[in-house]
Amino acid sequence: MKITLFTKNKIRHNYLINLLSSFADKIFVVQESLASISSKTSTRNQISSVISDYFENVKNAELKLFGNPDVNNSKKNVKILPIPYGDLNNYSTKLPPDFLNSDLYVIFGSSYIKNELLDFLIKQKAINIHAGVSPFYRGVDCNFWAMYDNNFHLVGTTIHLLSKEIDGGPIINHAMSNIKTNRYEYAMSAIKSAFNSICERIKDNSLHKIKPVSQDNSNEIRYSKRKDFNEEKLKIYLEKEIHLNNFKFDNSLLVKPYFYNE
User: Fold this and answer.
1) CA separation (Å) from 45 to 26, 35, 53?
2) Does residue 39 register a pLDDT over 50?
C-alpha cells in the first residue's frame, strides 16, 4: 500500500510517519515545518510566562506519550517533501507525481487545504484526523476548549472524510483515551488513540468499508479560532481543579468510539 500524508514536523507528527511506514510499502510525506510553539500565539507580540508554561506542559505530555522520534527510514520507504508551514496551497496539485498517486491520503495537522488540492483529496476520499470531537468542537485547540467548558467527555479526536467544511466531513469514528492521570496527557493520548485506530483499520482493510456518519451541525458547541486562545482564558482554565477520574463519562454521543488504554 502507498500512503500520502500531509502533516507537520513535531514529535507526534514524526511518530505518525513512523507508525504508517512500519506497514506501508511507500509513504510520501508533505511535511510543513513549524519552527516553534509561538506560532500558536502569533497574534501576540510577546508570549507570557503563563502561556509558555502551558505549552511546556503540553510538550512534556507529548514526550511521555510519543518519545522524541526521528523519522525512521531504515526500510527506505519514506519520501519527505519539506515545505514551510502555510505554503501547502502554493504547491496545489503541482506536487511530485508520486505524492498524488497513492492508495490512501491522510491529513493530520497540516495548514488549511483549499482549491485544487482540496478538490483532489476529497475525490480520493482522503481521511482527516481532527484533534477534537466533531461536530461538538471544531476549529483549533478543541480539546483545550472542551476542558475549558467542563465537557471532559468530549476530549478526543475525530477520524473523518475530508470535506470543504473544516472538520465537518462524515465521521468514520471517534478515538478517545482512558488515561486520566492529568489534563495534558489525557488530551495528548487521545491523539495517540487516533493513530492506533486509523492504523488498525488500514491494516485490516476496514477503513473504507465503514459507512461514515454525517455530522449534525446543530450539535456544535464551539467553532474555535486561533485568536480565541489567550492568557485570560488560559488563566481561567488553569484555575480549574480537574479530577478526571471523578467525572461521569457519557459515550453515547460518540461514533464507533475507540479507546486508548496504554
Assistant:
1) 42, 17, 17
2) no
User: b/e per residue, 153-175, with b = 16+ CB within 10 A?
Assistant: bbbbbbbbbbbeebbbbebbbbb
pTM above 0.90, yes or no: yes
d(CA 24, CA 233): 42
> Which pLDDT score, from 0 to 100, does residue 35 have?
63
Q: How far apart are CA 154 and CA 52, in angstroms?
A: 25
Q: Which of 37, 43, 53, 36 is nearest to 237 (CA)?
A: 53
pLDDT of 186 > 90? The answer is yes
The H-assigned helical ranges of the chain are 11-21, 49-66, 88-91, 115-123, 142-148, 183-203, 231-239
Distance CA 210, CA 15 (A): 25
Question: Which pLDDT value is given to residue 38?
Answer: 44
